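Worked problem 6 (solution included).
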Amino acid sequence: MTTLDAAFLARLDALLGPGGVARADADALAGIDPGYHPDNLAAGVQASPRTVDEASAVLALCHEVGVSVVPHGGRTGLVGGGASRPGQIVLSTRRLDRIVEIDTAARLAVVEAGVTLQQLQEAAAGHGLTPGIDLAARGSATIGGLIATNAGGIEAFRRGTMRNRVFGLEFLGADGTVVSDLVRVLKNNTGYDLKDLIAGSEGTLGLVTRAVIRLERQVTPAATALVACASAEAALTVAGRLRDRFPGRLRALEILWHAYAETVAQEHGVSLSGFGLDPAPVYLLTEAEQDPDIDIAAAMEAEIGALWEEGPVTGAALAQNERQREMFWRIRDDSDAVSRPCPDAKTFDVSVPLSALPAYVERIRSELAAIFSPDMRVYVFGHLADGNLHVMIGDRPPGSMARIEAILYDGLAEVGGSFSAEHGIGLEKQDAFRRYGDPARRAAMAAIKAALDPKGVLNPGKILG
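Solution. The predicted structure is:
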């Protein structure tokens, strides 16, 4: 069906009550932010259940009449995983927003899917704990969305991705059946691990409703530094030394190529030279946590000083106060700032083994310049310790996307990398998935989709097309 009939909408209203259904034809969607994809709310109907039972009833109704459902969390996805169209409904978890429990003894939290990462961080911090995952969209990204996309972020190199942060999971099957495995223990060897299957499935196999999240002891940052490096190879040397010097204490190792760092800094009214840094090819943003046995700030300053004498480091600025620390992080986090001077900038997301990373960046920059223009704006930054790079490209000629993707993705699989590190497949990377994904793996995924969602109700058209 391409439009939703009145009988279906009446049943949906009856299930969710006042405020539970928003429609474009009643202007109720006008005040809702569509997020990062223009078609996120194109369905024109958004259902917002308040309880798991209501969400289950909505899915059961949609399964019965053949209406497909597009799950939404914070709408921060970058590959069209939440895009919808007329004839579908959007199912938002925004009202499934309870933090059910913080168990300090077991260091875990039980939360509903609509809780934002920042809400969980703040609640856990009240007990001296942290969920062990962090990313720039923390204020809007939901726990359910983070699981559905297997989000990574800043701390993935030491805490793992979202899949590693989940003890137990409750989700709804395509027909509304509640599948509950809310275990609270690490060791649970009881057959197929369905939570690992749902994590990263982008809402195509089930709708996350509740989760048990592992927590870690929260430790206050003791030193934050923005380090100028002579080259990408030098940055790897610095990163390796810092990891060896501060084992278990490094919270972040972020890499920023010069064009990205300088552009974001300027958009915030500061310059890197204002921090005492001369222009450098790349910069590292690193942060270490307090240690009761040593003065971390002094130790980091000494280690960076030694690296400066040896050559990999050409300059460094250690944050002198919280305001300066926040500015360093703003330069790293605010990739949206690039879109102001470069409105057509398109973000790509890859993983590259560390040994291949410097050559990879040099290759793509030289090929983009040779094939398109030496003036094409290319901004590169990412999570150095796990090889996850974000590449933002502006000044793209019409019809150039396929060629750009070939430059960025060719050869990645051969060196053990990935054309999608943490953004997923959604709509926008399906061509790449067909070209670079293993056919047998795709076939296995299609079989799983057909078994769990035979009517194709859950987020159809995403990942597999």
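Discussion: The CA atoms of residues 67 and 349 lie 32 Å apart.
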